[in-house]
Amino acid sequence: MKTIITKKYASKGPEMKTLKKNKKPLTDEERKEVMDSGATWNFGSNGKPSPAVWKAEVDGKVWYVCNTHRAYQCKPTLKGAIKAFDFIETTSNRKIKVIKISETQKEKKDFFKKRTNKHIERVQDAAKKIVDRYKEYEKLLEQVKNHDASKFKEPEMTPYIELTWLKKQDQGDDGGKDIEKATLHHIKNNKHHPEYHNKEKANIDSTNRDKSVECISAKNMDDISVAEMIADWQAMAEELGTNTARKWYNDVKNVRWSFSKKQEELIDKLLKVFE
């Protein structure tokens, strides 16, 4: 789509056309800073977050840019462009409304992005440790690139923003039907959850998202998805610091999920990577 900038929303600095012609990739450090800040769009595959800030070099000077098709801001520093994203994000609305979000709502969304992106990073780190030990699971590294991407799209994103905030405030996870529905949607649409492989039997306990009403079989789960599940368990254990992935497995085995003998041996082998 062609970017059309009205005078009202124009930014000081080079014109957008010039910036686009001189676009340069962000360094790994710059990309990480942008992602950690929550200045992201969720337009990638399955809603995967991507940096909302990009970089250009014009006449030897580096500019950092964030834009929609209606507005752009270019700043001489990365932090300046990240700060400008709050305004640019409001121009993505089709009617160009400045959406007034309360500080609490903005804080909730920012915290959700930061926490979820950190969890994804932990999962990817755990996956790398698995592959370092067992090269035959190399495909795992590709699969975890989209880990939890559905949380950045509806019908999951809004309920998960509230859920994440409730947990931050130590108010549990009783967020009502919306969170229950979002959780069920999530586990039925992500391969690292056994429910993805047994959708007809998928269920959760409405009073506790970490439990189910009925134990379901995970026997159709492929080995790479089992490995991603282990990476997810390990990431959560690191985040919470109150449990281990092994303890979680022992608690849910044959209670929430049942596994084949071969799967149990694989799970035991992969858990040992972190022990």
| Lateral arrangement of strands in the main beta sheet | 1-4-5-6
What's the domain count? Answer: 2
Structural class: alpha+beta
What is the typical, i.e. mean, pLDDT?
87
Indicate the proportion of strand residues: 5-15%
Count of strand segments:
8
**Could you describe the largest sheet, including whether it forms a barrel?**
4 strands, antiparallel
Rg measurement, Å: 21 Å
SSE order in H/E notation?
A: HEHEEEEEHHHHHEHHEH
What share of residues is helical? 40-55%
Per DSSP, the total helix count is 10
Name the poorly predicted regions.
1-10, 94-101
The span between the termini is 50 Å
Gross morphology: elongated
